Amino acid sequence: MLRIDAEISGRPIPVISWAKDGKEIEAKARFEISSTLTSTTLIVRDAIRRDSGQYVLTLQNVAGTRSLAVNCKVLDRPGPSAGPLEVTGLTAEKCTLTWGPPQENGGAEIHAPSVPCPLTKAEDPLFLPSPPAKPKIIDSSKTSITLSWNKPLFDGGSPVTGYMVEYRNTTDDDWTLGVSNTKSTEFTVVGLTSGAEYVFVVRSINKIGPSEPSPETDPQIAKDREDEPIFLISSNLKIEIPLTGKPQPKVSLSKDGQVLKSTMRFNSDVTTDSLIIYLRESVASDAGRYDITASNSSGTTKSFVNIVVLDRPSPPVGPVEMCDVTEDSVSLKWLPPAYDGGSPITNYIVFKRETTTANWVEVSSAVARCTIKIMKLINGVEYQFRIRAENRFGISDHIDSPTVTVTTVGPVTCVDTYGAPEIEFPPEYLDVVKYKAGATVHLKIGIIAKPQPTIEWYKDGKELDRILWSIISEKLEDCIVTVPRLIKGNEYIFRVRGVNKYGVGDPLESRPVIAQNSFGKEKF
């Protein structure tokens, strides 16, 4: 809000008028003029940058005319950097970006570092690759175990040429090399001892060498693989497991380290050739690993069976974290349910309520991840939030957040008038858009909004993961920067924003560019 106060006097009482840029200001919309016998006030609500300028107060009566000018400046974040954003000096490892300064600096100089950064020698940035994520056991036999893994997230600046697989018996500390270099992301380790339990790790290999080991796999016994029993909630379970031994072994069952005793719901029978487990009216807590110990005078053998009970998931795990609280929004974070009900979590459902009422209002039923930014809250109102998880068997019980009051944090600067976002669909998107299998899909949608809106993409009602942007530099003196450590063959998009002490401007974005040896230059 812009406010100008002035004391006045005159006989007879003068006629008061305010003007800007030679035009008289009328009291309407955002402009308000109030006057008394001794003072006058001009108020400009929701001031924007174009409200800067010279305001002239004029007093007039039969005795004459008197005017007074006041210069006002409205401070704001800078406008977008001037384009085009040019990419030059493009090679397989680096490129140079050039752009123009913002046409509007928001009333303050664009930030620049006080001391230039030291020179850095240009060289090929090569590192060890990151390890693959935790490998998965996909098959087993009495003498072999097959595992698979995904490619590492970071190749170290040099292509990954292969993978190293190591394993050990869970009773030993020494690791054995399964294979020194395989190009596949799947490998079968052979020559294992039947009935022994093993864990495995995988290392990525590039030009520099092997990475750190991946996380260990879950322990796996070398035995013929059997599908784990799967049952619906509230059903009766009967599991028959082959069992041999002379003399006939004694069998004990345990779960989560606790020996299981026969009850009205759970019991087991041992026959001459099998172990039969009965579980009546199954519940979600019955799911998990059941350890089996069989022993006789000749020795002891251990095994296990995993039971999956299909049910709705357990509630999300709290506590619910709240961050980035503003005058009209708050961000929530939580953890996935401890038990997914034997089926992947498809989405989360988030509710809100004002603490002055008991009514819950749905915010979204298509939250794909364990985080959400809730917008359009009322400044100064206290809220509580509720979260449920959903899979194909149903919706979980809820978890509630602590209460939070949305409020302005720190000083509020004058900003341009807000407007609801508008989406402009190209005519070709009004029908089915067809692409060949394997092609890269580009959907370009026009969006008009101020301030910049939060953008979410959904497919089949589920939110898609967002693209992550990496910061090249937060402080640049000139409108040019060289971006090192690009990966040959990868496609990149660059953004530039102007920054002053009042905030960050809207971005100027380049078109996609592929890192490769290039002659000449290309403009975007």
From TrEMBL:
<feature type="domain" description="Ig-like">
    <location>
        <begin position="1"/>
        <end position="69"/>
    </location>
</feature>
<dbReference type="InterPro" id="IPR013098">
    <property type="entry name" value="Ig_I-set"/>
</dbReference>
<dbReference type="GO" id="GO:0045214">
    <property type="term" value="P:sarcomere organization"/>
</dbReference>
<feature type="domain" description="Fibronectin type-III">
    <location>
        <begin position="426"/>
        <end position="518"/>
    </location>
</feature>
<dbReference type="GO" id="GO:0008307">
    <property type="term" value="F:structural constituent of muscle"/>
</dbReference>
<dbReference type="InterPro" id="IPR003961">
    <property type="entry name" value="FN3_dom"/>
</dbReference>
<dbReference type="InterPro" id="IPR007110">
    <property type="entry name" value="Ig-like_dom"/>
</dbReference>
<dbReference type="Pfam" id="PF00041">
    <property type="entry name" value="fn3"/>
</dbReference>
<keyword id="KW-0393">Immunoglobulin domain</keyword>
<protein>
    <recommendedName>
        <fullName>Titin</fullName>
    </recommendedName>
</protein>
<feature type="domain" description="Fibronectin type-III">
    <location>
        <begin position="316"/>
        <end position="411"/>
    </location>
</feature>
<keyword id="KW-0677">Repeat</keyword>
<dbReference type="GO" id="GO:0048738">
    <property type="term" value="P:cardiac muscle tissue development"/>
</dbReference>
<dbReference type="GO" id="GO:0031430">
    <property type="term" value="C:M band"/>
</dbReference>
<dbReference type="Pfam" id="PF07679">
    <property type="entry name" value="I-set"/>
</dbReference>
<dbReference type="InterPro" id="IPR036179">
    <property type="entry name" value="Ig-like_dom_sf"/>
</dbReference>
<dbReference type="InterPro" id="IPR013783">
    <property type="entry name" value="Ig-like_fold"/>
</dbReference>
<feature type="domain" description="Fibronectin type-III">
    <location>
        <begin position="131"/>
        <end position="224"/>
    </location>
</feature>
<dbReference type="InterPro" id="IPR036116">
    <property type="entry name" value="FN3_sf"/>
</dbReference>
